[in-house]
């Protein structure tokens, strides 16, 4: 089995990205890449444990199957990024910008997202337990089937957000803003400190609706084909 290519300097990384904007199976563990421009780069099966990416531009990038435990991403620009099956446990994301990012099946356990901008973010199947989200902006965010267990959301802004099947047991929402927010299958009474204004009810999507719409579309297609066949005859 081939050993992953080891990169220790920004020069090595930029040289590797000169031909294509992708790093696959690379090792960036502990590398000092503060402030580097990596916008639009695809990171697949990359090791970033303990890497310094403070203030880096990772906007519109893809992080898939990335190991970034303890990485420093404070102040990183990650708007529009796609983060899938990635381990960001204990990562420093203070003041990071994740507007309209998409996060799925990712581990953010004990990550620090204080003062981060997560407005319009889409999160699904993600572990946010024990995260720090003090003063974070989660306006118009969409969070589903994820855990915010024991998370610190003091003074977080959840205005206009939607939460479906989210575990908030032990979470602290002291001073959190929830105006216009909606939630479904969320037990706010399990929170250590529930929000002052509980979000409105969000009905769970009907499981049979996509099937019904598919059947209707099939019937309409068959009807159209029969009509066309009659016109030809």
Percent of residues in beta strands: 5-15%
Number of helices: 2
Question: Rough shape?
Answer: flat
Report the strand count.
Answer: 12
N- and C-termini, Cα separation: 65 Å
Mean pLDDT: 92
Can you put this structure into words, describing what you see?
The chain is α/β, with parallel strands linked by helices. 13% of the residues lie in helices and 14% in strands. It has helices at residues 10-16, 209-232, and strands at 5-6, 22-24, 26-27, 42-44, 62-64, 82-84, 102-104, 122-124, 142-144, 162-164, 182-184, 200-201. The strands form 2 sheets. A 10-stranded parallel β-sheet has the order 2-4-5-6-7-8-9-10-11-12, with no helix packed on it. The longest helix is centred in the C-terminal third of the chain and has 24 residues, at 209-232. The model has no long low-confidence stretch (mean pLDDT 92).
């Amino acid at each position: 089995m081939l050993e992953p290519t080891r990169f220790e300097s920004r020069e090595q990384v930029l040289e590797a990205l000169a031909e294509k904007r992708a790093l696959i199976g690379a090792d960036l563990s502990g590398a000092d890449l503060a402030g580097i421009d990596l916008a639009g780069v695809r990171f697949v099966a990359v090791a970033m444990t303990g890497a310094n990416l403070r203030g880096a531009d990772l906007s519109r990038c893809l992080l898939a199957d990335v190991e970034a435990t303890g990485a420093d991403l404070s102040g990183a620009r990650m708007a529009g990024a796609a983060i899938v099956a990635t381990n960001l446990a204990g990562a420093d994301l203070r003041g990071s910008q994740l507007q309209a990012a998409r996060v799925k099946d990712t581990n953010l356990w004990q990550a620090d997202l204080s003062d981060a901008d997560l407005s319009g973010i889409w999160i699904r199947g993600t572990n946010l337990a024990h995260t720090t989200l003090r003063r974070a902006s989660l306006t118009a965010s969409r969070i589903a089937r994820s855990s915010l267990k024991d998370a610190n959301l003091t003074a977080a802004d959840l205005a206009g957000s939607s939460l479906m099947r989210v575990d908030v047991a032990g979470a602290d929402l002291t001073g959190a803003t929830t105006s216009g927010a909606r939630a479904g299958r969320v037990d706010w009474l399990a929170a250590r400190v529930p929000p002052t204004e509980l979000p409105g009810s969000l009905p769970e999507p009907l499981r049979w609706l996509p099937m019904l719409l598919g059947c209707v579309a099939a019937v309409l297609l068959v009807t159209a084909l029969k009509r066309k066949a009659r016109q030809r005859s």
